[in-house]
Specification:
The chain is of the alpha/beta class and about 220 residues long. The chain folds into 2 domains: about 150 residues, SPOUT methyltransferase, trefoil knot domain (Alpha/beta knot, 3-Layer(aba) Sandwich); about 55 residues, tRNA(m1g37)methyltransferase, domain 2 (Trp Operon Repressor, Chain A), CATH 1.10.1270. The protein is built from 6 helices and 9 strands. Strands 2-1-6-5-7 form a 5-stranded parallel beta sheet. A two-stranded antiparallel ribbon has the order 3-4. Helix 2 packs parallel to helix 4. About 25% of the residues are buried. The model has no long low-confidence stretch (mean pLDDT about 95). Bound molecules: ligand 9WO. The site of ligand 9WO has 15 residues, from strand 5.
Length: about 220
Amino acid sequence: MKITVLTLFPEMFSSLSASIVGRARKEGQLQLEVLDIRAYTEDKHLKCDDYPFGGGAGMVMMAQPVGSAIEAADPEHRARRIYLSPKGRTLTQERVISLAEEEELLLLCGHYEGVDQRAIDLFIDEEISIGDYVLTGGELPAMVLVDCVTRYLDGVLSPGSLVQESFSENLLEYPHYTRPVEYRGLAVPEVLRSGNHAEIDRWRREQAVALTKKMRPDLLK
Ligand code: 9WO
């Protein structure tokens, strides 16, 4: 998959190369390109924001640099073009899985008070929110999206590890333990040391259901 990120703050993405994303890139599954919107402005002082028509606090990202950056990055509109915005539909694991099937994604990160609506109307396919809170920009949400989509690219995770994870059956994960057997007076549940795999599976499933009922009853529907 190719993912192009458009941002006024490309340096924020340097840490994304590490971890799971770095691995997907190394294995050739992910081509990540981060482009600086400022490079596409036609303003001689490299300006990319201006005052809002109608007044109000803050600045608005200009349509021209955003539009030119999108057209330069994706001239034939091969990419699914996404604007990270609190107005979008909230990202779910289901949507992550379907986005992972796209050949190309283009992620537009807004800043200041937002992007001139005409750039959204003309160039964006879909607005996605990662949750109901306002940030200073779309960069962190874009990194979240890259991270969760990348996990589904072939060869990034071992085959079994996606099957049993959180949300795969609308259940939260069961609790995990490793050595030592006792830590500050708390012991690892006996069943996990029994070697009885049928019992272990049953215990984990019970724990997952109980935890979901308690913490996220909305997931059980
Ligand atoms: C600012 C603001 C102030 C008062 C009332 C509502 C408001 N909305 C915004 C706003 O949307 N600011 C954005 C900052 C402009 C575009 C980039 N910004 C952003 C993206 N903040 N939070 C996100 C975001 C994106 C995806 N998922 C969650 C949050």
